[in-house]
TrEMBL record:
A GO term for molecular function: FAD binding
InterPro entries, sorted: FAD-bd (IPR002938), FAD/NAD-bd_sf (IPR036188), RIFMO-like (IPR050641)
Any one Pfam family match given in the protein's UniProt record, by short name: FAD_binding_3
Entry keywords, A to Z: FAD, Flavoprotein, Oxidoreductase
PANTHER family attached to this UniProt entry: BINDING MONOOXYGENASE, PUTATIVE (JCVI)-RELATED, TRK SYSTEM POTASSIUM UPTAKE PROTEIN
UniProt source species: Mollisia scopiformis
Domain of life, per lineage: Eukaryota
Cofactor entry: FAD
Domain FAD-binding per the UniProt entry, residue ranges: 20-363
Protein's name according to its UniProt entry: FAD/NAD(P)-binding domain-containing protein
Length: 433
């Protein structure tokens, strides 16, 4: 038995093979961002990932100023800016091509005076798998970081307050690890959350399934801006760049629940026919497509003892408006700061981690959940109240000269971080390996 930390003993008589201060389950963008923050602060961190590489499925594409500010703090901003595409235009709301392709309203970043906000653009567009690859490259430069690919978390045992947490994985055979803290960043179907019997409260949308497709098509030749929302009862969609140059565009749309699972992806040609501008027959290159269930769900708590949840493991919302990963990365920033304060500044762990759970859960409940529901309904609902509020929103975009500034200020709202680190936290951190 190899047990690397002589100060701790395994919670049970199991063949523990390694110890890390923090073990994170999941090498998605949230898990890797947290790992990078910790490793940079000289906290030994190990990531356990079920797959053998970063997941490539088409999901998040947009990072808003609030997130860019956090990426900047750990030295990631330049790489993300280089790899991604800056949305300097804003958001365009249109009708579907089948209904004329008319512009209904625009949120225009160009109306914002230079220097008025820290980031004078709406966000950076980049596939989340590319963000995760950038994060991984940065993590691998840190001597306190390690990752185990092909290790599927299956169980955890917490002992008393002084005992380490024992983690059980399936790799080639069964493996056990110990840690001080276990973080579940293993996505919406989180096994870590389930291992603690934490309820995932809320609902799953029953009107539409979501389909996210990546496709090469020259939308810009037909006047499409970096981010476009197609407003339609049936053919609603989000059409947005996923990066610079010839990176594919993201076309995300809904398919009614009456369509059987096996036929969801066969709807793509007909959908594209109704959505895409340009001459017929349409010529495009479909790169990838995936159907998703969309939820509005939050874990009853983000913490049970030394097991903590972060990102989609703690909350999941429909993707319209791009708030899911935004919230997850902000969780990782907050949890990273809490753990750094515990290890580096000797702060009391229980109170801080309870506050993390409460504050980040509330952030999702009070902002992400209602915001993402509003974004979704705004592009397809025919409910009279939604129609009235959509009209009011579009009217103000079209007539209020200050609206872009107001929205940009909100998006740039680099809020006072209640878990912020003391100024000197990253001082005297040993050079990276
Ligand atoms: C179509 C679509 C578009 C979206 N667009 C946006 C957007 O523009 N902006 C935005 O902010 N959000 C968006 N989202 C939401 C975003 O994709 C999620 O919020 C994000 O993936 C959450 O990241 P995560 O790291 O928490 O989880 P994930 O990305 O799901 O990563 C979890 C990781 O854990 C691993 N894992 C799972 N189980 C285990 C286990 N038992 N053991 C070990 N490893 C395990 C998985 O393999 C995976 O690598 C979108 C979502 C969808 C579906």
């Amino acid at each position: 038995m190899v047990h690397l930390n002589p100060n701790t003993t395994p919670a049970a008589d199991v063949p523990v093979i390694e110890h890390a201060k923090v073990i994170i389950v999941g090498a998605g963008p949230v898990g890797l961002f947290l790992a990078l923050k910790l490793a940079k602060a000289s906290i030994q961190v190990m990531v356990l990932e079920a797959e053998n590489a970063v997941l490539q499925s088409p999901r998040a594409t947009t990072y808003m100023p609030i997130v860019l500010n956090e990426l900047e703090k750990v030295g990631l901003y330049e790489d993300v800016e280089r790899a991604g595409f800056k949305n300097k235009e804003g958001v365009t709301y249109r009708t579907s091509n089948a209904k004329g392709g008319n512009v209904l309203a625009r949120l225009e970043m160009s109306q914002i005076p230079k220097g008025a906000v820290k980031y004078d653009f709406a966000g950076i567009h980049l596939g989340q798998h590319s963000l995760a690859e950038i994060l991984l490259t940065h993590c691998q430069r840190e001597k306190n970081f390690s990752i185990k690919w092909g290790h599927r978390f299956v169980g955890v045992k917490q002992g008393g307050p002084q005992d380490p947490v024992t983690v059980n994985c399936l790799a080639i055979g069964e493996k056990f690890f110990t840690c001080d803290y276990l973080v579940g960043a293993d996505g919406a179907g989180s096994s870590v959350r389930r291992s603690q019997c934490i309820a995932f409260e809320g609902f799953t949308w029953q009107d539409f399934r979501f389909v996210a497709s990546n496709v090469k098509y020259p939308f810009e030749e037909y006047g499409f801006t970096t981010a476009n929302m197609i407003v339609d009862e049936e053919d609603w969609a989000v059409i947005a760049r996923t990066g610079p140059g010839d990176a594919p565009w993201r076309v995300a749309f809904g398919v009614r629940m009456t369509v059987p699972e096996s036929e969801i992806l066969t709807q793509i040609p007909e959908k594209y026919e109704r959505l895409f501008p340009g001459p017929r027959p349409l010529k495009y290159e479909l790169v990838s497509a995936n159907p998703y269930w969309a939820h509005q769900r939050v874990a009853a708590t983000l913490r049970v003892g030394k097991v903590i949840l972060c990102g989609d493991a703690g909350h999941s919302n429909n993707p319209i408006g791009g708030l899911g990963l935004t919230t997850g990365l902000m969780d990782a920033a907050a949890l990273g700061n809490c753990l750094i304060r515990i290890y580096t500044h000797g702060e009391e762990a229980d109170g801080l981690l309870d506050r993390y759970s409460r504050v980040r859960r509330n952030a999702w409940m009070e902002f992400t959940n209602p915001g993402s529901i509003d974004f979704k309904l705004r592009i397809h609902s025919t409910h009279p109240e939604v129609e009235a509020s959509r009209k009011e929103f579009f009217d103000s975009l079209n007539s209020d000269p200050d609206i872009s500034m107001k929205v940009a200020t909100m998006m740039n709202n680099v809020v006072e971080d209640e878990f912020a680190l003391p100024e000197d936290s990253f001082k005297d951190i040993p050079a990276t390996a």
